[in-house]
Please model this.
Amino acid sequence: MPARRKAAAVTLAATGMAALASVPASAHGSMGDPVSRIAQCYAEGPESPASAACSAAVAAGGTQALYDWNGVRIGDAAGRHRELIPDGRLCSAGNEEFKGLDLARSDWPATRVHSGAYTFKYRVTAPHKGTFKVYATRSGYDPAKPLAWSDLDLEHPVATATDPVPSGGFSTFAGTLPERTGRQLLYAVWQRSDSPEAFYSCSDVDFGGSGGAGVATGANAGGATGDDATPVPSASAPSDEQIEAGSGRSTIEHHGHGDDDASTSARPTAAAAGANRPEAAGSARNLAETGASTGTSYAAIAGVAALAIGSAALFVSVRRRAAGGRPGR
Model:
């Protein structure tokens, strides 16, 4: 086989395999209204957050988590949320990078809300098909204690939406907030249908005191603050300008904002999210069996794999033709 042909075939195969190994992950968003903890802290400024809670989150997990605000997810969740995320780690989805979000505090900035109809807005940086579910904490929820799955009313999601059409950077869908008083938490799960990947966020809300009605910040504003409502730090989502300004610091690949360096990628697969958990090994095996990596689309994997396989086949074919043409063979 001529050395030039052999070198070309080997180069093609190597390029295909290298591309398969370096397909970047994609981050895809977080709840925008009511704003999630991580988006709220990012809006305050990762380097010097204004609130005590966000400052504590940075002290616990560092500033990078806030620059990666749209990357709280598990790449191979496949609906196994309760299996993969332990109690006390719901807001971080069990990811060590985001552990500051799990701090049990009663002073997280909160969005003022009231029971009844609510329009949820999920900030998306890379839209995908899938289902959003939002759960509210039960009456009696204590924000000063670590959030557990049993704190959520999982039987009655306050909102469910499948494949809402993104517009203006948000996926918008309707829901109904239950009768609650005081500080509560809304837990959002976005499970993709075109991949096992899922995204998670915690949004702190305040229903005011026993008077009920509160004042929402943003599109859902309405009602009046109850006289016995406990003052809470106001929550606000990051603006487009803030998102763009911090995009260069993100280690998460995503469409429209963030790092364009293909050598960087997000890390939260089930195994990376909690390698010390017993189920992590099984999750890693599942990842290997499905061939999916965190945030990597199956189409990308299939395309690059096909390139690598085709290159290898070409290499073998050329070798066989060359061998068949040699004298005495």
Summary: The domain at 27-278 is CATH 2.70.50.50 (Coagulation Factor XIII; Chain A, domain 1). The chain has two domains: 3-21+296-324, 27-278. DSSP finds nine helices and nine strands in the chain. The chain has a mean pLDDT of 73.
